[in-house]
Amino acid sequence: MKRKLKLKLKRPLPQPQGERIERLIASLITYLTTECHLSQNTIQAYSRDLQRFRTWVGNKNPKDLTIVELSDYVAWLHDQKLAPASIARHIISLKVFFRYLQLEGVLQDNLAELLGCQKLWQKIPTVIPPHQIDDFLTAPWSEDPYWRRDRAILEVLYACGCRASEIAGLKANDVHLSEGFCRLHGKGNKQRLVPLGEKAVAACREYLETERPKLASRGYDSPEFFLTRTGRPLRREAIWEMVKKYALRAGIDPNVSPHTLRHSFATHLLAGGADLRQVQELLGHASIATTQIYTHVDQSRLKKVHATFHPRA
């Protein structure tokens, strides 16, 4: 009689913990993208933060980590010379990751929730004085390859108080020059309509009529309003570099950023008498508490209010 050969199914080799964490992080990113519909910038921030955690954790299993070890991770972030705001964001990213592991049944207890985020001092934003704004916005000149585009970008940044990511994502059909406004896509893909103003409209129209047709003819058919020399959409990093370049030329602190123009927009509006709620709406802030920081920036406005309404001013 022939003996039957019994074949045993081979058990899969245990997956290295490093690869397992990499897979879990990728799964979280997919979840945040498809289920939570977070913005691309937020997704990238979570991904960067968790890759740093992946570097620290090595081959350890997340479910075996103790609160002491997680505290060591925070201490390690300090050793990496990260700013307090960056460390706070890394802790939030870790908490989101561990909540997801709970959701997937990988973890039973979420020890990351026991990590406290340090209270951050509210930093007073840097603002460009009104007398320097004109020099800055007119810094692009005819010797620059695409000076009309660059001038239009600076004008829109200051006219709308928008973020660099909102400028980079601005579509051609979001800009309504005849009506004098544009539609911005903010955080969480929230949309808002913001007036452009005469000078921003003029700069955008000149760019639209002279430079954009040439850039758009490079074959990429990009729907974005502002294009690179190859016809592709501008990256927000390129907008940051552009702002620093023209700030240096205008004799302004080269540490300014596109967000500096956003701060200047809000501060100058409040100085001109705009209502705080109106500025909140223009900036796209979800909470007025975020907008209130600009009341601390404009000392001239506070002095004027004090002189007008205080009985012994």
From TrEMBL:
The keyword DNA-binding applies. The active site is at residues 163, 187, 259, 262, 285, 294. Transmembrane segments: none annotated. The keyword Nucleotide-binding does not apply. GO terms for molecular function: DNA binding; tyrosine-based site-specific recombinase activity. Residues 123-307 form the Tyr recombinase domain. One of its GO terms (biological process) is cell division. It is found in: Cytoplasm. Residues 19-102 form the Core-binding (CB) domain. InterPro entries: CB, DNA_brk_join_enz, Integrase-like_cat_sf, Integrase_catalytic, Integrase_recombinase_N, Integrase_SAM-like_N, Recomb_XerD, Tyrosine_recombinase_XerC/XerD. PROSITE patterns: CB, TYR_RECOMBINASE. Pfam families: Phage_int_SAM_1 (PF02899), Phage_integrase (PF00589). Keywords: Cell cycle, Cell division, Chromosome partition, Cytoplasm, DNA integration, DNA recombination, DNA-binding. SUPFAM superfamilies: DNA breaking-rejoining enzymes. It comes from the Bacteria. GO terms for cellular component: cytoplasm. Belongs to the 'phage' integrase family. XerD subfamily. Belongs to the 'phage' integrase family. XerC subfamily. Forms a cyclic heterotetrameric complex composed of two molecules of XerC and two molecules of XerD. NCBIfam families: PRK00283.1 (NF001399), recomb_XerD (TIGR02225). Site-specific tyrosine recombinase, which acts by catalyzing the cutting and rejoining of the recombining DNA molecules. The XerC-XerD complex is essential to convert dimers of the bacterial chromosome into monomers to permit their segregation at cell division. It also contributes to the segregational stability of plasmids. This is Tyrosine recombinase XerC. It comes from Blastopirellula marina. The gene is xerD.
